[in-house]
Write a structure and sequence with these properties.
single chain; 293 residues; mainly alpha; 58% helix; 0% strand; binds zinc ion
Length: 293
């Protein structure tokens, strides 16, 4: 049974313009595995939702509304080729506009062959596949605290407002690292080529038993992902790495705002405490003896 059309909501023109900005496009409609925040693209979802009425007309569903639009609008014409005239109501013209969008992705045969309509499946078709990222398990690891997840999500995409970036747009006078003042503060330096952050990550690697000579953030993520360890141990390593990224960024911000950089020892102690507390609070009940060591 198909009820009368209900539209989700109309996005104001100003908001549409804002959504087109490059920053939001990275996020819009991208799943966690694709590097986004898992938000749906609401305009595309709306199109997919309205598509249910296009499908209902195409498959001649048994409802009074279908009988009514068939007799008043479509009549004996071919639905896939049908064009509304200007006197048609607003909602009917909206459904016909949606049909034109769907025609770019489906033939009438494909569309009519759906035994039931799934808004989710049509949305996926409209959004299309996107390349997957290799860092989603690290960033969205359940042992990470939410603020660590967000800073890591920014850091792995080189999207934090580092001194080098702020200097380029004239917000900051010097592009140099706020922790060591030796090199430009870019992501690769901060995570973890900087002497300060390198010492932090080396101590944390040693603490969790992750033996590798590499120290770059991207390569550490790959190494953990490819290690032949239990899932729980990989989660702990990811959590320790995420806490290190967050704490280095926090120390760097302390230098900017409070003119005070915590010692490596205090930062490492804090990271260990955070990771321990987090594991205790969300530790899975069934963790093998090998992982607990
Ligand atoms: Zn530095």
């Amino acid at each position: 049974m198909v009820n009368s059309p209900k539209f989700v909501f109309k996005v104001p023109k100003g908001e549409k313009k804002r959504c087109r900005s490059s920053n939001v496009n990275i996020v819009k409609g991208w799943t966690l595995k694709e590097g986004g925040l898992g938000f749906r693209d609401i305009l595309t979802w709306n199109t997919a939702a309205i598509g249910k009425y296009v499908w209902a007309v195409a498959t001649k569903q048994d409802s009074i509304w279908i009988k009514w639009v068939s007799s008043v609008y479509v009549k004996d014409g071919e639905w896939w080729e049908y064009q509304p005239n200007n006197s048609a109501s607003w909602y009917w013209r909206k459904i016909c506009e949606t049909k034109e969008v769907l025609k770019q992705y489906y033939t009438i045969a494909e569309f009519s062959s759906m035994s039931c309509y799934s808004v989710k499946d049509v949305y996926q078709k409209l959004i299309g596949p996107k390349p997957l990222v290799h860092w989603d398990h690290m960033v969205w690891n359940r042992l990470n605290t939410p603020k660590h997840k967000f800073i890591c999500w920014m850091a792995v995409q080189d999207r934090l407002q580092t001194a080098a970036r702020l200097a380029r747009i004239g917000v900051c006078s010097s592009p140099n690292c706020l922790l060591c003042d030796q090199q430009e503060e870019v992501h690769d330096h901060l995570f973890f080529a900087c002497p300060y952050s390198k010492r932090c990550v080396e101590e944390i690697k040693s603490w969790v038993g992750f033996h590798t000579t590499h120290s770059g953030l991207q390569i550490l993520i790959s190494r953990i992902g490819n290690s032949h360890q239990t899932k729980f141990r990989r989660q702990v390593w990811y959590a320790a790495l995420a806490a290190t990224v967050y704490s280095v960024w926090r120390s760097r911000n302390g230098s900017l705002w409070d003119k005070c950089i915590p010692t490596v020892h205090s930062t490492v102690t804090r990271i260990k405490q955070i990771v321990r507390d987090r594991i205790r609070s969300v530790m899975p009940r069934k963790v093998g003896e090998r992982s607990r060591k």
